[in-house]
# Entry
Amino acid sequence: MKDQPNSNFKPSYRVPEIFSPFKNLVTGESTRHGGVSPAPYNSLNLGGSTKDSQEHVLENNKRFFESLNIDFDKVAKSHQVHGADILTVTVAGRFEGYDALITNIPNIQLAVTIADCTPILIFDPVKKAVAAIHAGWRGTAQEIVLKTGLAMQKEYGTDPGDCLAYVGTCIDECSFEVGADVADNFNSTFKRWDDQKNKFFVDLKSANKEQLLRFGIKPENVEISPYSTVLNNADYFSYRFENGLTGRMLATIGLVE
# Structure
């Protein structure tokens, strides 16, 4: 990913390399740097579901999207519920109850919030369609990524062989310690048992990549973030590592005319 300069005055974000050849595509994954929020939300908190002031969150959002040359009123977001419902977006705005957004309309910027869950971005350069997905363990277990690909196929005629995808920064496998109630939702490929800790560990990145491949996206067309919200907590928010008192990042994708 290309790193953008870190500054107290300019939001810091990373652009997936796999999308960089497309000049009419705007993508980015925020870090925690370059906003106005005080601790424990310091500093680029982009999520409204925290006790940070809404003035700070709004200012951070405006700064972040302005750094991408996107007007904030062109952004489509949803209050996420860790489900598998997908919204076909036809106008920008704030929605309720969806964890995946798809559109083929230029100048609508899709965005999902994250703080350990996995963000996934999909681009179909032939049909000019995009998707932004929030996949926590529940959404991953419900195969939200595969379902989103199939929704793009149904709505826009997307051929998965044409698509490019990015599996973003989230909690890493060595940090995602879970009990059997969570682990039972995953097959053995994506979980391991630790005898010392008496716990399972689940690999959300691999589980979501597998859904992209099962949809039909070519392995060479999938980029996976090398970063972790826990191991790289100086740069990213982690709900688990910071005991719930933290901000939220955004992953975003959209086509511009």
About this structure: Helices lie at 54-67, 137-141, 144-156, 180-183, 204-215.
